[in-house]
């Protein structure tokens, strides 16, 4: 019996070897038929054991991944970059998968590594189970938009919308990409659709209003901004743009009121200068001077403020103060935004010197 058993063992080993080599093999004896059955049984048993082991490892990996996902969410909510780095290291140690690529893409995006975030998201979206996730597509698009790849970003936002989701955020993002691509009409349509779906998103109002303002449609600019202004009359960006729209429509008094509201909330040299300019245009030199005084008090190194105040002094006939402001403006000439402003200042001083004043 020992000898037979040993022979059967050798036969099974040989059969398995031949089967692995894919060689033709055929025997008619009863013993070899038994050997084939035993070989199949052992092979199936080994396959089943490997399958069970693989399933166990997959369950453990999925549980580990689920735990890391929960930790990742908590770290993002707490803005804890130290924990994010730890989680990224743990993800790196796990076997590669689309889900791991997606999670690492989220971490890279949060850390503003947009090229790396794009690579991870592209890898994750190769998995058919994840390619239908509009949230991943939107994150990839945002990474591309922030990396300056506007067309690729637009394409991914468009794909997210084509997945069948009436997502206000997707319309908003596609609108931003269209702005970068110079297609303002498409941008306006997307931003308006975004507002239809979510009428409380402040940034959408502001972007749409800026588009209308830059296109010269000041009435529509005002129309767009009325809703956020009524919701929050202390929004500085809304106040500033609304004031510009009113002023451009010829409503100088209303524009001034809005700027004054702005100044009460947050003193700004540019706004003070704008109010002073309003007063100067109306011939109210005293208010204009006071406005430029306040502006210079907030930003004493801005040569344009001194130049503008000098113009008021000249209109009042106060050449001494005008000369002092022009001289100060030239001392700060490196801050001039345009060469012609410096030349204008020098010309005014030359005229004062020529008049012997």
What order do the helices and strands come in, and which of them pair?
Layout: H1 2-21, H2 30-78, H3 81-93, H4 98-110, H5 114-124, H6 128-131, H7 134-146, H8 150-162, H9 168-181, H10 184-197, H11 202-214, H12 218-231, H13 236-248, H14 252-265, H15 269-281, H16 285-298, H17 303-316, H18 319-331, H19 339-354
Helix pairs in contact: 1-2, 2-3, 2-4, 3-4, 4-5, 5-7, 7-8, 8-9, 9-10, 10-11, 11-12, 11-13, 12-13, 13-14, 14-15, 15-16, 16-17, 17-18, 18-19
Explain what you see.
- This protein is mainly α.
- Helices cover 81% and strands 0% of the residues.
- It is built from 19 helices and no strands.
- The chain has helices at 2-21, 30-78, 81-93, 98-110, 114-124, 128-131, 134-146, 150-162, 168-181, 184-197, 202-214, 218-231, 236-248, 252-265, 269-281, 285-298, 303-316, 319-331, 339-354.
- The relative contact order is 0.03.
Report the uncertain regions.
1-29
Major sheet attributes = none
On the 0-100 scale, what is the average pLDDT?
82
Our count of helices gives: 19
Q: What's the quick description here?
A:
This protein has helices at residues 2-21, 30-78, 81-93, 98-110, 114-124, 128-131, 134-146, 150-162, 168-181, 184-197, 202-214, 218-231, 236-248, 252-265, 269-281, 285-298, 303-316, 319-331, 339-354.
Give structural attributes.
357 residues, mainly alpha
């Amino acid at each position: 019996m020992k000898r037979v058993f040993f022979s059967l063992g050798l036969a099974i080993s040989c059969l398995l070897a031949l089967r692995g080599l894919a060689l033709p093999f055929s025997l008619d004896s009863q013993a070899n038929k038994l050997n084939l059955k035993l070989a199949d049984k052992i092979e199936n048993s080994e396959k089943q054991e490997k399958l069970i082991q693989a399933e166990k490892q997959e369950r453990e990996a999925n549980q580990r991944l689920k735990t890391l996902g929960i930790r990742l969410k908590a770290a993002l909510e707490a803005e804890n970059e130290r924990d994010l780095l730890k989680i990224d290291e743990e993800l790196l140690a796990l076997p590669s998968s689309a889900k791991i690529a997606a999670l690492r893409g989220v971490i890279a995006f949060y850390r503003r590594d947009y090229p790396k975030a794009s690579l991870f998201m592209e890898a994750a979206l190769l998995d058919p189970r994840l390619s239908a996730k509009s949230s991943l597509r939107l994150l990839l698009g945002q990474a591309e938009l922030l990396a300056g790849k506007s067309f690729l970003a637009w394409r991914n936002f468009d794909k997210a919308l084509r997945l069948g989701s009436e997502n206000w955020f997707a319309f908003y993002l596609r609108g931003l990409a269209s702005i970068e691509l110079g297609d303002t009409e498409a941008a306006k349509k997307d931003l308006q659709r975004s507002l239809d779906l979510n009428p409380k998103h402040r940034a959408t109002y502001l972007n749409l209003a800026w588009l209308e303002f830059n296109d010269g449609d000041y009435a529509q600019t005002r129309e767009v901004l009325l809703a956020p202004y009524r919701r929050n009359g202390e929004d500085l960006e809304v106040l500033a743009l609304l004031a510009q729209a009113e002023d451009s429509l010829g409503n100088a008094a209303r524009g001034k009121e809005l700027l004054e509201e702005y100044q009460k909330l947050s003193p700004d040299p540019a706004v003070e200068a704008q109010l002073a300019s309003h007063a100067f245009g109306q011939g109210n030199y005293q208010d204009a001077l006071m406005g430029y005084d306040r502006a210079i008090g907030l930003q004493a190194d801005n040569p344009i403020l001194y130049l503008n105040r000098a113009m008021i002094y000249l209109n009042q006939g106060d050449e001494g103060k005008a000369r002092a402001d022009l001289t100060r403006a030239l001392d700060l000439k490196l801050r001039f935004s345009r060469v012609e402003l410096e030349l204008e200042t020098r010309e005014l001083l030359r005229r004062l010197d020529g008049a012997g004043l």
